[in-house]
Amino acid sequence: MKVSVITVCYNSAQTLERALRSVAYQDWPNIEHIVIDGGSTDRTPNILQRFNHLVSVISEPDRGIYDAMNKGLDIASGEIICFLNADDQYASSSVLSSIAKIMMTSKVDALMGDVVFFHKNNPKRTIRRYRSNRFNPDRLAWGWMPAHPGLFLTSAVVKRVGHFKIDYQIAGDFEFIIRVFYQQNLRYQHVPKVLVRMQVGGVSTRGLRSKILLNIEVLRACRENGLKTNIFKILAKYPIKILEFFWR
Q: How confident is the model at residue 236 (pLDDT cuts 50, 70, 90)?
């Protein structure tokens, strides 16, 4: 099975090479790495040029992160599709091979694993672990989702679900995942290990303002897809998230 990894970036020179190497070092022989660059003006184009024999690149202005992700979906040709952010990396060189083997043998539609978070100043130290085994579709109304970079979907599921909605700023991946799991007869499995290391400071972790917007969009996503919820239900997940800093 071919694995299509989609990375979107914009002025990501400080972290992009680490992400590209993370995919290049994977030991699965059939990988397609697609990079959608929003027209970067820093050293990002130079880095991509050095990896041009390993990645397929589209570099042009876009209408935001979810528009860029859609461009990646439009050209992905793998049977397995996943996203790796420009400031993230796979936890080992065998992540994609282990995922592909499980999805081939178990015939699941979706596979999810854990991710850990680190500060850019100390990438070797884990500060939090996001355990995707706590997710099930019933918890979408509570704002729970599997960690997106640790989620692997078949191309058949992606085609059925369609594109990300580009009028979301932060929670477009949550809205997409609602459509993946809600009211779908989906076969999914959790892999009880860390698949991705994520650097804190992304669009959804930039402080209180981002958190407020995130939860407003999560509430909107639930309502648009017929999930009954309220803001108090969504906010109830945060005590558990705080405990993730201790449950590593």
A: confident
